[in-house]
Every structure is written in C-alpha cells, then in structure tokens.
Amino acid sequence: MITDFRRIIIAAITTVIFLVILRLFLKRKIRTTKIKQWWRLFSDRFHDHQFLKVPEVNDNSQENQLFRRVSLYLNSLESLEHSDYTNLFSGPNPTDILLSLNPNQTLVDEFLGARLLWTYDVISSDTTVTKSFLLKIRKRDKRRVLRPYLQHIHTVSDDIDHRVRDIRLYTNSSTGWKTVPFSHPATFDTVAMDSDLKVKVKSDLETFLKSKQYYHRLGRVWRRSYLLYGPSGTGKSSFVAAMAKCLSYDVYDLDISKVSGDSDLKFLLLQTSPRSLILVEDFDKYVAAKNNSAPSSSAAVTISGVMNFMDGVVNSCCEERVMVFTMTAKEDIDPAILRPGRVDVHIYFPLCDFNNFKNLASNYLGVREHKLFSQVEDMFNSGVTMSPAEIGELMMVNRTSPSRAIKSVINALQTTSLTVSGLLDSCKGTPKNGWRSARDSVDESYDSVAGIGCRDGVKEIRKLYGFLTRKSGRKSDSFDLGT
Ligand SMILES: Nc1ncnc2c1ncn2[C@@H]1O[C@H](COP(=O)(O)OP(=O)(O)OP(=O)(O)O)[C@@H](O)[C@H]1O
Ligand SMILES: [Mg+2]
C-alpha cells in the first residue's frame, strides 16, 4: 500500500519536473526566435533593398490580377498562422476558417534562401481606399530570386483558385461595383429542364473554358455570350447561378437602371475582372424598342450605348468573360441587337412539361414514380401548364405528403385551365370548352380583337402564363447556337 503511494508521488513529481523543463525549453525557443528577428532587423540595415509595389487597381481602374494572386498567396502562408496578428474569417463552408493579413501588417516569406518581406498597405481618405502590397527584397537576391518567386506565386494562387475559389457577386451602384460572397444554391442538378439541353449547355461552357488557344488562333477574343429567354419563373436566374458555378466565375449583376449614362456603362465593363460572368437581367426593358419609339425603361443609357457595351466585350481588355442576358421574349427585339457575335447562344426556357414536372417531383418530394403521375401527364398533354416556380412552390409547401403535393398541382392545373379558357372566351365572345383550343387561339385573338379590354385581357393571359408566341413543349430550337 505504502509502496503504491510512493510510486504515485514519484510519478507526480516526475510529471511536474517534465512540464517545468518543457516550459523553459519552449520559452527559450520563443526567445531565440525573437533574438533571430531582432538580429535580422539589425543586419537588414547593412543591405541595400529594393521595394516593389503591387497596387490593387491599374491606371484604368481595372483590377490588378497580380494583387489578387499575391493576396491569395500570402493568406495561405504558414507564417501568417504564426504571426502576432491575424484576421479570421469564416469560409464558404461553415467549418472553414480563413486567415487574412491585417492592414499595414508585415509578413516574412522565404524562397530559395532569400528573405522577402511583404507589407499590406491600406491608405484611406474620405472617399477612397487605396490598397497595395509592398515587397521588400535585398538587391543582392533580386536578380536571382524575383522571377522564379513571382512564377511560384502564380502557380500557388492558381492552385488555390481552383481548390477553394469562392465565387463573388458584384452589383453596381452609383460609386461602382460592390461585392458580397455569391451564395446562390442552384446548380445544374437542381434546375429542372430538358436533360439534352442541359448537357449541351454544360459542354458548351466546358469547351469555352478550354478554348483560349483556339480563339486566339482564329484571331478572336476569348468570350461568349448567351441569351436566356422565356416566361417568368422558368428558372433563368437559377440557371445563371448554375452557369457561374460550373465556370467558377464571379458574377457581375449589372442593373442598367442604376447606370448614369453610356460612358458609365463602359467604365463599369472595364472594371470587371477576367473569369467573370456579366449578367444583365430583363434585358428587353432596355432594348425592346421595335414597337415603341424608345425603350420602356427610364435608364439614362441609349440603345447604342447598350450595343457598344455588348460589343465592348469584344475588346481584348475584356477577355475571359461570359455575358448572359435574360428576357421574357425576344420577338420585340431588333435582330441586330441579338445577332451572332453579340449573342452567340440563345436558350429558351419553357413552362413546365411532364418531364420537368417529374424532375421537380424528384428534387422537391423525392419521388420518381407515383400513381397520380398518369393524371398529371394527361393534363400536360392536354396543353395546360404552369411555370416551374409555381409548381415548385406547391410542392414545397406540401412536401411532407407527396400525394397531397401532386394533388395540389393537379388542382392548380385545372384551375389554370378553367381561368384562362374563361378569360379567352369572354374576349372572343365564342364559348370554348377545352384549354387546348383556348391556347391555340391566343395569337389569333391578340391580332384580331380590336377592343382594348379584350386585348388587355389576352395580354394579361400572356403575361400570366407566358404564352407569348411559343408553346411550352417546344424543344427543337431551345438551344440555338449562333442564332
Ligand atoms: N426549371 C426550374 N427548376 C427548378 N426550380 C425552378 C425552375 N424554374 C424556377 N424554379 C424555382 O422558381 C423560383 C424562381 O426561379 P427563377 O428566379 O430562376 O426564374 P426566372 O425565370 O428567372 O423568373 P423571372 O423571369 O421572373 O426573373 C426559384 O426559387 C427556383 O428555384
Ligand atoms: Mg430571373
């Protein structure tokens, strides 16, 4: 018993002695590091240095890509973890913690035996904030190290870019672009649409990404533009998010109504960075002037300004860009605006058909087959339809019971059919029974009915249900390369 007690006492004393020695050793190590630092500072005084500045923007206010690369590189350095002061940010995933340099902080890097000191300079005035990185390198080392060091920064930042690139969303305001992390959850898998079309668009984007040399061999600027058109709630905006994720490109969401004039528009374009998707939503608001004397929008830009903006992407300064325009219908748009070269690919987004409905049911309700599907299919085949947004909403609120959800879709389709055929009949004055005949007569009614009320009624139906001049099931030319 006593021997056991003695053993415990000896073990406890040994542990305490070990901890004290460890502590002293660590303290000494820290002290040695400090002494080394001071020695380096002292010895630096006897060497000539060169200072190299990497500003955030160039003279044309365009983003300096080297600044972004240096920032990615420095924030990934292990020495940042051990520095006295570091900013911590949450990453795209909740568990990610990202480190970032603090303004005016200095970080030491070593490369091929040379010491490189980086300082993050931030100068703020009332209206502007100027950021830059300042590299301090011994003149003796510069010739030997600088070129391979910059190459090393390129390689490392490229690697980080591909691994952890968090896409950013830029929106324009009166002072330029403002940015936030892009967190739209849509992907190609979550957007319900014709699967062949999805594959075509994906492969078109992937081919674009790999085609820099090809474009240059042809003497063309490496860019591509898309028009997404179709009724409201058919997934155009969600598809843009999926495109940006597939490309891993930042999104510049341009609101033309906030642009103060044509030159401002050009300036905003010049401020976008490579590897970005420039999005103009509701583009018809600014260019649908075929039937009116001027675009309906009150924006300060002119049509020629908008066309220059579209062509501006052709400038070599705006390479590696994808432009996307969305609108409900392109019939009223002057074909010159949408000609190949300005818009390369036209993609039509139809209202829901049975296949899309099944996609939605699988995504929203987790069901691939159901006894009510045949009834839904009959309804779609009879020509009645709704937007995926409407159907998705019904499925979402009833997601705890797939049967209830599908029944609510059937009810909504029936109501839609009755409402629209009733409206059309009252316009034409001819009783009609089925939705199919009502739908088929939409264009005819629009052209022949002179009364404003009826015309408005049909317009309203067109707006509500998206039956402009297309039918929902149309697929053959929904992916229309080069118009
Ligand atoms: N094809 C689809 N597949 C899956 N969800 C869809 C689809 N279309 C629409 N939705 C859902 O409906 C909502 C609206 O979609 P979205 O904003 O992408 O439509 P939109 O075509 O851009 O409409 P608008 O022309 O009014 O801007 C989103 O929440 C989206 O998830
Ligand atoms: Mg939209």
From TrEMBL:
One of its GO terms (molecular function) is ATP hydrolysis activity. It catalyses: ATP + H2O = ADP + phosphate + H(+). The chain crosses the membrane at residues 6-26. GO terms for biological process: response to stress. InterPro entries: AAA+_ATPase (IPR003593), AAA_N_dom (IPR025753), At3g28540-like_C (IPR058017), ATPase_AAA_core (IPR003959), Mitochondrial_chaperone_BCS1 (IPR050747), P-loop_NTPase (IPR027417). SMART domains: AAA (SM00382). This is AAA-ATPase At2g46620. It comes from Spinacia oleracea. The lineage of its organism: Eukaryota, Viridiplantae, Streptophyta, Embryophyta, Tracheophyta.
